[in-house]
Amino acid sequence: MGILSQLSILHLLWAASVVCQYEDYDFEDEYGGEPDHQLPYYFNPDTQAEVPRFPFPVGCAKECFCPPAFPLSMYCDHRELKTIPNIPSHVQQLYLQNNNIEAVPAGPFTNVTFVREINLSYNKIKFHMIDHGVFAKLSNLLQLHLQHNELEEFPFPLPSSLERLLLGFNKISRLPGNALEGLHNMTVLDLCNNLLDDSVFKEKPFSNMKNLMQLNLCNNKLETMPPDLPSSLRHLSLENNSISHIPENYFNRLPQIIALRMSHNNLQNIPRNTFNLPNLLELNLGHNKLKQVFYIPRSLQHLYIEDNEIENINVTVMCPALDPLNINQLTYIRVDQNKLTSPISSYAFFCFPLIRTIYYGEQNVTGSRLTQLRTPVFRRFLTPEEFQEAEDNHETLGQETEEDHEAEDRYFRPYYQ
């Protein structure tokens, strides 16, 4: 019996191990699928990554640093360099920002074949100091950073492979029509903080950029809306210009717009259905001269109309009809620094059932001094305790509101910074 008992126990253990194997078996492994629950991967800087083997020697310019864990990157930033060092042919990411570089000669790029990103921001580069065609021959280049330099003209020619071009904070005043020819893969173009005026639109420089998704033209000298923009555009930044009018039906050609920023302009009147856009999420028209509100699309989530001359917010203009099957998505409105004498009508909460915050702040009712409505901030979905606390302490509520507003601004920031 002792031997039989031991055999029985062994048999049970074997059967249990077989059952466990079937329970632990992931059939998705058999077919190469991904398991439903995977732990996120976190990069550990203390872990020594294995350097892949290259069919050529991996070199590095003596002025720069090439991390063993990232053998395709060369870091030459913040080193007070006045010239660009020779670049090994295998480098894919080249970082030269924050130096004193004044010229981009062809010599250092002679053997460069695989480079995909070049960062030359925060230097002293002028247009006439860039060798003609030095960038155009880089057939794998995807990103070029040249913001915060001294460029007077658009740096062309450029390779057709380019996807992101950042030229903010320069002195560019001209944009020749052929400068953007062939850049069919471009998705992001940043020209903020330059000297561009309406004359740059004469040759319709953006019309053939069929994949352009983000165009930044803020802080220039524009007085009219840029014409002939590609229908692929999703983010348009026109803040800090002198635009006074939006032509009727202007956005009919831009149905994919998600974010539109036109604060700090001279807008006085908005045609009623100007923003009838099916995908618009953020609309910023703060710091203009608007006197009335306008229709907003059902997709809109964030609306900024602070620092205008609005005396009354007509909710029926913003929301002319209710549709229970297609409700408005608006969650946040900022209306401070206007001329409101009373809060927005409660009808707004039928039109905008998802609204969480209305920031009233201070109003310019008298013109000589700022006044504050009884409710500087309206918040929905508060617990009774939170509501009572807010009622008891307006000062604390105001401080929290400013912080919350800044946090919300940071949260919804699709633009390159």
Automatic annotation (TrEMBL):
Name of the protein in question: Osteomodulin
Source organism (scientific name): Callaeas wilsoni (North Island kokako)
Gene behind the chain: Omd
Subcellular location: Secreted, Extracellular space, Extracellular matrix
Cellular component GO terms held in the UniProt record: extracellular space
SMART domains: LRR_BAC, LRR_TYP, LRRNT
Keywords noted in UniProt: Cell adhesion, Disulfide bond, Extracellular matrix, Glycoprotein, Leucine-rich repeat, Proteoglycan, Repeat, Secreted, Signal, Sulfation
Subunit text: Binds the alpha(V)beta(3)-integrin.
First-listed, main subcellular location of the protein, grouped into a coarse class: secreted
Domain LRRNT as annotated: residue spans: 59-93
Comp. bias intervals (Basic and acidic residues): 407-417
Biological role: May be implicated in biomineralization processes. Has a function in binding of osteoblasts via the alpha(V)beta(3)-integrin.
Alphabetical list of PROSITE patterns matching this protein: LRR
Similarity annotation: Belongs to the small leucine-rich proteoglycan (SLRP) family. SLRP class II subfamily.
